[in-house]
Amino acid sequence: MTRPRRVLHSPSTEPEPVDPSAFPGLEERRGADGGAASERWRNLVASNSTIIADGAMGTMLFANGLMFGDPPEVWNLSKPDVVRRIHRGYLDAGSQILMTNTFGGNRMRLSLHGLQDRVAEINQTAAILLGNEADAAGGDALVAGDIGPSGAILAPTGTLDYDEAVDIFAEQAAALIAGGVDLIWIETMSDLREIKAAIEGVRRISPGIALITTMTFDTRGHTMMGVSPEQAVTSLSAWGADAIGGNCGNGPDELVTVIERMRAVNRDAILVAKSNAGMPELVDMQAVYRSDPDTMAAAALLMRGAGASVIGGCCGSTPEHVQAIASRVAG
Ligand SMILES: [Zn+2]
What we know:
The protein is built from 13 helices and ten strands. It has 331 residues and is an alpha/beta fold. An eight-stranded parallel sheet has the order 1-10-7-6-5-4-3-2. Strands 8-9 form a two-stranded antiparallel sheet. Strand 3, helix 8 and strand 4 form a beta-alpha-beta unit.
């Protein structure tokens, strides 16, 4: 008698069916706009070396006096010189892709501050600020329009309808693209349906623009909503993301494992690692990140070894961290 086969409970890694008009395939994306929308991204990827991203925006804004609870995106309007100086720090450190200061720049999150009618102004200005700074530094760095989570949980678990989420993300993407970004970077997502809505929103505005998507794997190797690295890379590539990976989370050690797991099920995806500078610790009601630049630089080599080709830092990472990563990866 054979022993009963043990079936491990593992969530399906099959992506949901794709609506071809909402999620154009590779050929269609490259053909859109004569390929112009993703040309700078494709050129950077073709250079075939490890691409250095930037570090934290929030950490640097707090260091410059942003108060906890205040919307960081307003500083694009009220303190553009500070935002530009932060971008410049990352450009000087060697970042080749930088993100706009628009993480919470969607209608839903801005409504917490009565700013829901200023999505276009805030996002477009942020894109112009970063674009100007990148140009001033020689113009080689790519400007990524940063889109973070909506701030609400999608139905049926929460109250936000999928279609409304698509509208919210499309509105933000439209403003970023109007501001001249080279690509869109959707980040810190936990819910696969929400990131799907964000991709659909971006594609409604621009079928061809390059798209980086990263989720946060901070709960026992999964996202807070239970998404595994395998599920993420499988679904996000089916939905037409040009690069896929993890950002934020509990520090570089956990993210190395995430990258390994993504690579194990997908040989071809361009993988992205943007780790926090260690596990956040609460000290005097402030998040403190203890990984120093040298530790992050050593971790960057592990990320690259695991398959990541776009590497930067998230919360707690400063230009010093990025500079250490850039010089270690180059050496
Ligand atoms: Zn972070």
